[in-house]
Design brief:
The complex is a heterodimer of chains A (about 650) and B (about 230).
Chain A (H helix, E strand, L loop, with lengths): L7 H12 L7 H34 L8 H25 L7 H19 L3 H4 L13 H22 L6 H17 L16 H13 L9 H18 L6 H8 L3 H8 L4 H21 L4 H12 L3 H18 L8 H34 L12 H6 L12 H5 L1 H4 L17 H15 L6 H19 L11 H14 L5 H9 L2 H10 L1 H5 L7 H11 L2 H11 L5 E5 L11 E3 L8 H5 L5 H10 L4 E5 H6 L24 E5 L3 E5 L2
Parallel strand pairs in A: 1-2, 1-3
Antiparallel strand pairs in A: 3-5, 4-5
Chain B lengths: L1 H20 L6 H4 L7 E6 L2 E3 L12 E8 L6 E4 L2 E2 L1 E4 L5 E6 L8 E8 L9 E6 L7 E6 L2 E2 L7 E2 L2 E9 L6 E4 L2 E2 L1 E6 L2 E6 L8 E8 L9 E5 L1
Parallel strand pairs in B: 2-9, 11-19
Antiparallel strand pairs in B: 1-3, 3-7, 4-5, 4-8, 6-7, 8-9, 10-13, 12-13, 13-17, 14-15, 14-18, 16-17, 18-19
Classes of the chains: A mainly alpha (about 650), B mainly beta (about 230).
């Protein structure tokens, strides 16, 4: 339970409060900066909504029934942003990812969408979702109170989203890839960048925001689009279950998870993955429930989900599996064969479209690495085994007891796994409790759409558990679990005011989770609006940054720099960098054939490296991969000299060596 | 109705466009504003001895306190240009820098500067690294140089506080007061302060006071009168 109210929280609160007294903090400037960039982001969002809505309008001409307003809007944003990302990918493949390309693509898609909507009478449906947020006069005070309570997490989220790039994975590959793509105006494969061969559509959407808003620190504002998609999906579900205010417990259920807060404020690909997965899931859910045909839209959105990372492939497969399982429940005898054909056609169309959307990424990987899903399908590749050893069972085993205790383990005890510092939260327990209540109340068999949700969640959970994936990967299905949660509440037979009131008590979770995961709170640093303030924020939050500035003063742009146990330093290093547990010139490569620090220096010199940066704390922890006494060398010990190298910088935590 | 919706979306876009074109927009000029310049006022200590750790850390390095204004987190102290591991800055007035032993291996005067997070440098303050041995200390004046028997001057919890000025004092210099070695605080090569226990000034008389450096060299004795 320590993770829920850790002892560092009050100390951080004091540090944060002190920071607001700093002469560097100008609240008026920050407010103007935020408002200005929110306005620009909203224009991008509007372009996505209009473009996506136009696609839906074109598809609606072939179908009998229109999608519900909220699901339609969520799908429109997903289609608009996904198609923009896809266009940027192909432009990058052609070498045309110029600084203006993202703006041209976004504006072009938006204007084309507007023209289609104007011609096909689609404006009304595009903005019909806004009606879902209209509050009756008698409920306005409660709505205002609810909005005020969520305003605190919302403000912190905004501040976190405009912080400089400092998150570990992002500096290692997400934003680093974005930097490479902007510099080269293409999407080249970089073996030294972790997972760079794999699909990462979300990185191109980061490039888009970065290019249009003109600052790398603003790229993360794209996350607001994903948050909106998730919100609209829950609004759709609530209305579908005939419970207009039901989206409130749905949203609060999702917000009980600190991990969701964690992925929502960093540049991780997990939030876009959750957003596209949720929209695709809701489309398939709607088809199963209402018998409408949404195969094309679902296929495209599934393709976008699969284009974000390999985990997206698994999620897309699980959703299609769930859909196939649910279609077996369409068992009304006169329509049996027709239903089977409809389901089969949807599966084929969605699967083919998803593959088509993802095909470019597979082709890129195949041409660059010889495998469409590098490092898989390459015999005995060490990285493939490493990617399936993420230690997600948290030392609790893979047995049935460990599996059944997952909901409990989601709450107690932070996992030891690297890059997965936060517990999942009580959502699993809440879902289980709601299922028990509904199970007692509901006597008859679940409808097909619930079979779809349950089988999707179950098959993914089993895959996640037995392949040792990290806890973070469960977040992708949390919003769909929220839909299931809402259905269970709606069908439990309990008067709706009761779950609504109980759910409002969950408001405490967004507040606590904000404190647990907020970047500005955690580092006691406020976003820098000025260029100098941005550097100051980086220097204050990231101890490596002043060290890298030292390196950047001396290293040329074409120099080769090896980052030893500090692969997250890539983004802020101006020279060309290598060094990681995975990929080209990995730490394992460095270890092979070396028996002393001098051997390491010789090997790096022979490979053309001129500079070495080492994080001594992490080097000490990772020293066991070297079969010689690495921990006694200058790579770890600050008072030692490195034979054959000049020490440019050395302290107890970091060192920079010049090899020649 | 359709036109109505379209008008609504245009109405939404218009304020955004107006806002982005308005003076409330943060300009590039505003964004280029530098951080307030750092200013150093004192080092603690500002005199150290060759090879001898000060504010010693477990690994044998030393901790240097830096006081001033506009000293923010993420700032980096520099010793003659060499960057030091630096922490602090939460109060915007003080930093702490780790000085490796190798930097104090030879005597001399070095300059301490601070580099701000955005790369701007402060002015420098000198830090003296004294050789292991040096000339004998001298005392030029005691403050006060007399008192009445039993009267505590500059009262402190442990006794009376006395100032000593002179030359060639060192961080470990000890003041000897009537044969008793007093608790001595080094303020610089020209100034010390000591705590005189009440029992040493309880009776009238003339007390000899001298300073002794760690290398054993002593100053000539000066007289402190108790009336």
């Amino acid at each position: 339970m320590q993770a829920w109210l850790p002892d560092w929280l009050p100390a951080l609160a004091r540090a944060f409060s002190r920071e607001t007294q700093s002469p560097l903090f100008d609240p008026w400037l920050l407010a103007r900066w935020l408002a200005q960039n929110l306005a620009l982001s909203s224009l991008i969002l509007l372009a996505d909504l209009v473009a996506g809505s136009a696609v839906i309008r074109l598809l609606e001409r072939r179908t009998r029934r229109a999608l519900p307003a909220a699901l339609r809007a969520a799908t429109a944003v997903a289609l608009g942003s996904g198609l923009a990302g896809l266009a940027l990918f192909w432009l990058g493949m052609a070498g045309w990812l110029t600084p203006r390309a993202p703006l041209v693509v976004t504006a072009g898609f938006g204007l084309a969408g507007a023209a289609v909507l104007h011609r096909l009478d689609g404006w009304r449906r595009t903005f019909a979702f806004l009606d879902a947020f209209a509050v009756p006069r008698k409920h306005r005070p409660a709505a205002l109170l609810f909005a005020l309570l969520l305003a605190v997490p919302g403000l912190f989220l905004l501040a976190d989203l405009v912080m400089p790039v400092m998150e570990f994975d992002s500096t290692m590959y997400h934003m680093m890839s974005a930097r490479v793509y902007r510099e080269t105006q293409s999407v080249p494969y970089q073996g030294a960048l972790r997972y760079n061969a794999l699909p990462h559509l979300s990185v191109l959407l980061l490039v888009r925001h970065w290019s249009i808003l003109g600052d790398d620190a603003l790229a993360k504002l794209v996350n607001l689009e994903y948050v909106l998609m998730l919100l609209l999906a829950l609004v759709y579900a609530a209305r579908e279950f005939g419970w207009k205010a039901g989206w409130i417990p749905g949203v609060l259920f999702v917000l009980t998870s600190p991990l969701l807060f964690f992925v929502a404020r960093f540049e991780y690909s997990d939030l876009p993955l959750a957003a596209y997965t949720t929209v695709a899931g809701c489309l398939l859910f709607h088809q199963v429930r209402r018998r409408t045909t949404v195969g094309v839209a679902a296929g495209l959105v599934l393709g976008f989900a699969a284009s974000i990372k390999l985990q997206g492939h698994v999620l897309a497969a699980c959703l299609l599996f769930g859909f196939a399982a649910a279609s077996l429940k369409w068992d009304r005898p006169p329509d049996l064969s027709r239903n089977f054909l409809v389901a089969a056609r949807t599966l084929v169309v969605a699967g083919l479209l998803a593959a088509l959307v993802c095909g470019g990424w597979w082709l890129r990987s195949w041409v660059s690495t010889g495998s469409p899903a590098y490092p898989f399908f390459i015999q005995d590749h060490p990285d493939a085994a490493g990617m399936l050893r993420n230690d997600s069972n948290y030392g609790r085993g893979h047995g049935p007891a460990a599996f059944l205790l997952i909901p409990w383990h989601m709450i107690v005890g932070p996992p030891k796994a690297f890059a997965d510092p936060f517990v999942f939260g009580p959502a699993g327990l809440l879902l289980a409790a709601a299922a028990v209540v509904a199970g007692v109340r509901i006597r008859k068999a679940p409808p097909p759409e619930i079979v779809f949700l349950v089988s999707t969640l179950a098959v993914y959970l089993l895959f996640w558990f037995f392949t040792s994936q990290v806890m973070r990967y469960l977040v992708s299905l949390l919003p769909l679990a929220g839909v299931l949660f809402l259905w269970l509440l709606a069908r439990s037979g309990i008067p709706r005011r009761v779950p609504l009131f109980v759910a409002l008590l969950l408001v405490i979770f967004p507040l606590v989770n904000t404190g647990l995961t907020s970047t500005v709170f955690r580092y006691g640093v406020l976003p820098g609006v000025t260029h100098a303030g941005k550097q100051q924020a980086l220097a204050a939050a990231e101890p490596a940054y002043p060290v890298l500035r030292e390196l950047n003063r001396h290293a040329g742009g074409q120099d080769r720099t090896y980052l030893l146990f500090c692969e997250n330093c890539k983004y802020h290093t101006l020279s060309r960098t290598w060094g990681d547990w995975y990929g080209d010139r990995s730490y394992f490569w460095l270890e092979q054939g070396t028996r002393s620090a001098s051997d390491v220096v010789g090997k790096l010199k022979a490979a053309g490296f001129r500079w070495v940066v080492v994080n001594r704390g992490r080097a000490r922890a990772g020293a066991s991969i070297f079969r010689w006494d690495f921990s006694q060398s200058a790579f770890v010990q600050p008072d030692r000299e490195l034979s054959g190298a000049r020490t440019l910088y050395s302290d107890r935590n970091f060192a920079v060596f010049q090899l020649w | 109705m359709v036109k109505n919706r379209m008008c609504h979306s245009l109405k939404a876009v218009l304020p955004v466009a107006l806002m982005l074109a308005s003076p409330a927009c943060v300009s590039e000029r505003e964004r280029s504003k530098p951080l307030p310049a750092p200013r150093l006022t004192a080092l603690a200590p500002n005199v150290v001895v060759t090879g001898q750790p000060f504010n010693a850390q477990p690994d044998g390095s030393s901790a240097l306190g830096i006081l001033g204004e506009n000293l923010f987190r993420g700032s980096k102290a520099r010793w003659n240009g060499t960057p030091l591991e630096t922490s602090g800055g939460e109060d915007h007035r003080s930093l702490s820098a780790i000085v490796p032993r190798r930097l104090t291996a030879a005597p001399g005067v070095c300059t301490i500067t601070v580099e701000q997070g955005d790369g701007t440098l402060s002015g420098g303050l000198p830090l003296t690294v004294l050789p292991l041995t040096g000339p004998a200390p001298t005392i030029t004046q005691l403050y006060p140089d007399s008192t009445r028997a039993g009267e505590i001057f500059n009262p402190q919890p442990q006794g009376a506080a006395m100032g000593v000025t002179g030359t060639n004092f060192r961080p470990d210099t000890v003041v000897v007061f009537g044969g008793a070695r007093l608790e001595t605080f080094f303020s610089g090569t020209g100034a010390l302060s000591v705590l005189v226990p009440a029992r040493l000034i309880g009776r009238a008389g003339v007390i000899e006071v001298f300073a002794e450096n760690p290398d054993g060299k002593r100053s000539a004795a000066v007289k402190f009168r108790v009336q």
